[in-house]
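Are you able to produce any protein sequence you like plus the matching backbone structure tokens because I've never seen that pairing?
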Amino acid sequence: MSGHSKWANIKHKKEKTDAQKGKIFTKLGREIAIAVRAGGPDPNANSRLKDIIAKAKANNVPNDNIIRSIKKASGETGGENYEEILYEGYGPGGVAVIVEALTDNRNRTAGDIRHIFDKYGGNLGTNGCVSFMFDKRGQFIIEKTKGFDEDKLLMTALEAGALDVTTEEEYCEVITDPGDFSKVLEALEAEGFHFETAEVAMLPQTTTELKDPEMIENMEKLIEKLEDHDDVQNIYHNWDQD
């Protein structure tokens, strides 16, 4: 049941991504720019850039877009100066929420994020109020398509250093330490595996269930409005959506 719920959520998110490709490409372009400025344009020497490129590819960003973003960031001496900010808070029913943002106006973004939390029954907290409930991990979601070799995936992932491989009815999930993400990625790609998602994410240690229909509706709206905000890059939460 949990596997089905997660897969349905992933497919919904991918469908939404397809409908909002321009916005998704822009957000990932910003992440690439931040990574290039911090560690240079060579993904082989910049692990953060390498990880973001993998995430971009999993979101169907064309190689031309990725290369263009890297070149643009490499050649920029001025222009937009984005700052990375992490927001932590609670959604309806005490659901823990982490929001990663890139902004050129800290006050504007903080006000917007606080307003969204307040409007949908949550509240923005202080740094550290919920992040201790999450672990930073590399995560790959791989659909079980026709001819999928589960044993091959398990063997390849574990030999490359993966922490865990979970099998559900429609997909497999591979979890890694953040530092092993690129190594496992390369090993899986070399064996021909394709990813529905591939990213270094904040994964919850435990989950919170919502039973009240109004809370569930508000939590859905909270996530949707945060995803739609131009400055928001990633959202992590511990809501059990089964």
Remarks:
- Strands lie at 83-90, 96-103, 123-124, 134-143, 164-167, 171-176, 197-204, 208-209, 232-237, 239-240.
- The first strand starts at residue 83 and ends at 90.
- Helices lie at 2-19, 21-39, 47-58, 63-75, 106-119, 150-159, 181-190, 213-228.
- The chain has three domains: 2-75, 83-130+205-240, 133-204.
